[in-house]
Design a protein that fits this description.
Largest sheet: none
Helix content: over 70%
Oligomer: single chain
Number of helices: 9
Mean pLDDT: 89
Shape: elongated
Low-confidence stretches: none
Strand content: under 5%
Length: about 240
């Protein structure tokens, strides 16, 4: 239910933002494309009233989606946390998964934006170094929060002091090949984003692109180390 609502809301949000674009496209196409864009534009004429309504709708959907971001990834994390499998039953999973989703989401967006800027140079007028700077700062913040929660996952496992948790942590952090994967994940998601402390790094499209590729790899490894790693040991 949560994922379905998330998908539907995101699709509607995307569609509402594209209505003015559909109206513009219908004047530059013919045949079935013109009919399709005319239908999708919903009679858009670009009047002040329409722009006002579209702005309100965009604000409503963006406000509505934000709680869904938290609820969906919390529910997904609880699917794991409520199980009995060692390595899954972590109370910190809800904020951990939400933070991870935002971190990988911002990194994915920056990768796509950079590709768009390279393929369509006119996009640089709209997505500037200012945007890279601000998103880079937010990625740094999310990286620090994610790093704290990763440390908490290890600390709470040690604090529990049960044979299952200790064995799981040994397998995850001290046993090859998971040892190398774990520290590569830390490098991607903790060490490398610290370079974003420097403004020159944040405002450079090439460095941001490379850094975000590493972040995406690190976030994939985070899920990999949670799911197959725990299932490979169990009890």
């Amino acid at each position: 239910f949560a994922i379905g609502t998330y998908f539907t809301s995101s699709a509607i949000f995307l569609y509402f933002g594209m209505i003015p674009d559909f109206a513009s496209l219908k004047h530059h196409t013919t045949g079935w494309r013109k009919k399709l864009y005319t239908f999708l534009s919903l009679g858009w004429r670009g009047t002040d009233a329409q722009w006002k309504a579209q702005g309100r709708a965009t604000m409503f959907f963006s406000t509505f989606i934000m709680p869904l971001v938290v609820s969906v990834h919390s529910i997904v994390s609880w699917d794991f946390a409520l199980s009995l499998v060692p390595g899954y039953s972590q109370t910190v999973f809800a904020p951990y998964f939400v933070t991870g989703a935002l971190l990988s989401g911002f990194a994915g967006v920056m990768v796509m934006v950079t590709v768009l800027r390279w393929v369509f140079p006119f996009v640089k007028k709209y997505i500037t170094e200012y945007h890279y700077d601000k998103v880079g700062s937010f990625i740094l913040l999310l990286s620090l929060v994610w790093s704290y929660l990763t440390g908490m996952e290890v600390f709470t496992g040690l604090y529990a002091d049960t044979s299952l948790e200790i064995e799981h942590l040994k397998h995850k952090t001290l046993t090859p090949p998971y040892l190398q994967l774990f520290f590569f994940m830390i490098f991607c998601n903790t060490a490398l984003p610290l370079t974003l402390l420097f403004r020159k790094v944040r405002r450079c499209a090439v460095t941001m692109f490379i850094l975000c590729i590493f972040v995406l790899a690190g976030m994939w490894l985070e899920r990999y180390l949670i799911i197959p790693n725990a299932l490979s040991r169990k009890f």
